[in-house]
UniProtKB/TrEMBL annotation:
Record family assignment: Belongs to the class-V pyridoxal-phosphate-dependent aminotransferase family. NifS/IscS subfamily.
Enzyme Commission identifier(s): 2.8.1.7
PROSITE patterns: AA_TRANSFER_CLASS_5
Biological classification of the source: Bacteria, Pseudomonadati, Pseudomonadota, Alphaproteobacteria, Acetobacterales
Protein name: Cysteine desulfurase
Species of the source: Asaia lannensis NBRC 102526
Length: 382
């Protein structure tokens, strides 16, 4: 298989696997058991990982809350902050996000309507970016929270988090960013945000682990989503999965060391892939082509007469997709692409792919051969 779906998930780096393995067998203590050495060893490993995660985004270790992934982190950030504000009888009832956000963000914001908040979903420009003027207009109404993702999970398009964050803070609202697709792939600091969500499996770490950055000063306060033993400063109860957290920390440590070289390499491979595809499919369009994006990401609209699903079916040994992993099984147009102005017919011709750390030049050449063969097969069938 030629794997070109690195925005859906990434291969776990062998160094990450190696770091995790001892914690599944040799060192299996509960990190919350502080009365014996096995538990203390696990606790120290967790705190080292916390330092590694914090280091990558210029945060303090105490500002990192471990979660099961970005979906949980997004839910805690959005629901937890506004519920805490509601307890203080705040007049700020507006919660703002963007039409191209991940489903877990959109659904979290929409769900708050039943609690008396006003969900506001802002449109994007044709290139997938948010117009700052549109945000400024929305912020004229007292706002509790704004949530804007750093890099889109389908197109890779980057939002101006620093600029937008300054606007949000000037309006007196809290600012959250889903940075699952951006952390470790582009220069990113927590300085511009109050809350930030991170995922392990998007950055060559294990699935099932992530983190939420929660600013300590000035302090951001949250209501926990569920009750339990009060772990993670009372914000996220539950026994921490030491092996996954160790792997997560290792993955983010590697990302800090390799980010620039990864960016350069994946950018070059993406350019080679795009150039080859433009030769195979004259008239090919890049969705959001004028916007900055993470280096390996590519979202394409195929020429008329070729549906994406038919092309994918004709090359089963090449892993690409038609939309986000959480919705790709649905036979509906990508809501991200339709928010960018594509109609249902255009969206049905779109492919999402991304090269990654373990993609080779040889695989790009082989993938282009498969695309060429599949194109011939699809054209004949049509």
């Amino acid at each position: 298989m030629i794997y070109l779906d690195n925005q859906a998930t990434t291969r776990c780096d062998p160094a990450v696997v190696g770091a995790m393995l001892p914690w599944f067998g040799d060192y299996y203590g509960n990190p919350h058991s502080d009365s014996h050495e096995a538990g203390l060893l696990a606790a120290r490993a967790v705190e080292l990982a916390r330092e590694q995660v914090a280091g990558l985004i210029c945060a303090q270790p105490r500002e990192i809350v471990f979660t099961s992934g970005a979906t949980e982190a997004n839910n805690i950030a959005i629901k937890g902050t506004v519920r805490h504000l509601a307890r203080r009888n705040t007049t700020r009832r507006r919660v703002i996000t963007v039409a191209t956000e991940h489903k877990c963000v959109l659904e979290s914001v929409r769900s708050l309507a039943s609690e008396g908040f006003e969900p506001v979903i802002l449109p994007v420009m044709h290139d997938g970016r948010l117009d700052p003027g549109v945000l400024a207009e929305a912020l004229t109404v007292p706002t509790a929270l704004v949530s804007i993702m750093a890099a889109n999970n389908e197109t890779g398009v980057l939002q101006d988090i620093a600029g937008l964050g300054a606007m949000v803070r000037a309006a007196g609202a809290l600012f959250h960013s889903d940075a699952a697709q951006a952390v470790g792939k582009t220069a990113l600091s927590c300085e511009a945000v109050d809350l930030m969500s991170i995922s392990g499996h998007k950055i060559y770490g294990p699935k099932g682990v992530g983190a939420l950055y929660v600013r300590h000063r000035p302090r951001v306060r949250l209501e926990p989503l569920f009750s339990g033993g009060g772990q993670e400063r009372g914000l996220r109860s539950g026994t921490l999965p030491t092996p996954l957290i160790v792997g997560f920390g290792k993955a983010l440590s590697l990302a800090g060391e390799m980010r620039e070289s990864d960016e350069t390499r994946t950018g070059a491979l993406r350019a080679e892939l795009l150039a080859g595809l433009q030769t195979i499919f004259p008239g090919l369009q890049v969705n959001g082509q004028d916007a900055p994006r993470v280096s390996g990401a590519l979202n394409l609209c195929l020429p008329e007469g070729i549906e994406a699903r038919a092309l994918i079916a004709a090359m089963p040994d090449v892993a690409v997709s038609t939309g986000s992993a959480c919705t790709s099984a649905e036979i509906v147009p990508s809501y991200v692409l339709t928010a960018m102005g594509l109609d249902a017919k255009d969206a049905a011709r779109c492919l999402r792919m991304a090269v990654g750390r373990f993609t080779s030049t040889r695989e790009i050449v082989q993938a282009l051969d498969r695309f060429r063969e599949a194109a011939c097969e699809v054209y004949r069938a049509s």
